[in-house]
Design goal:
The protein is an alpha/beta fold. It folds into two domains: about 40 residues, no CATH class; about 70 residues, no CATH class. Helices cover about 35% and strands about 10% of the residues. It has a three-stranded parallel sheet, with helices on both faces. The longest helix is centred in the middle third of the chain and has 17 residues.
Length: about 140
């Protein structure tokens, strides 16, 4: 392949203006209701909540707040060990690649087999996602949005 000059961006458009070019627009997500006012204001779109076809079995719990990171990590490690021991699949969300790597090292020290899903392991993403939700699976994921 012949080396070419670097590409240049000839035009840009915001999502808001891009979406406004369509006469009909729709989408589906599990989190739009909380942002309904923003959808109305920015996109002039209403948000409709569809009822679930089965009763929700999720248990919502109160937030846990810790005095320091050490106490927080100790609880997280103990909870992951407990959930893993009973076979519960676990998804651990992190806000950065560095944090996902810290959690991974913590799990390795505790001999917990796990997968790391972040920008560094893009090639393995499909395999990692296919393992999530399985018996005893542990996935450490970085928010890449």
């Amino acid at each position: 392949m012949k080396i070419q000059r670097e590409s240049r961006t000839m035009a840009t458009i915001t999502y808001q203006n891009f979406f406004k070019q369509y006469h009909k627009l729709c989408g589906m997500t599990g989190t739009a209701v909380t942002e309904g006012e923003e959808f109305e204001k920015i996109y002039e779109l209403s948000v409709l909540e569809l009822p679930t076809n089965r009763p929700t079995i999720r248990t919502d719990r109160n937030d846990k707040v810790y005095f320091n990171q050490s106490a927080k990590r100790k609880f997280v490690k103990e909870y992951i060990r407990f959930a893993h021991d009973i076979g519960q699949p676990i998804l651990i969300g992190t806000s950065s690649i560095a944090t996902s790597e810290q959690v991974s090292r913590m799990l390795e020290k505790d001999s917990i087999v796990h997968y790391v899903l972040n920008a560094k392991f893009h090639e393995q993403e499909a395999h990692i996602v296919s393992q999530s939700g399985k018996y005893k699976s542990v996935v450490v994921a970085t928010n890449m949005a």
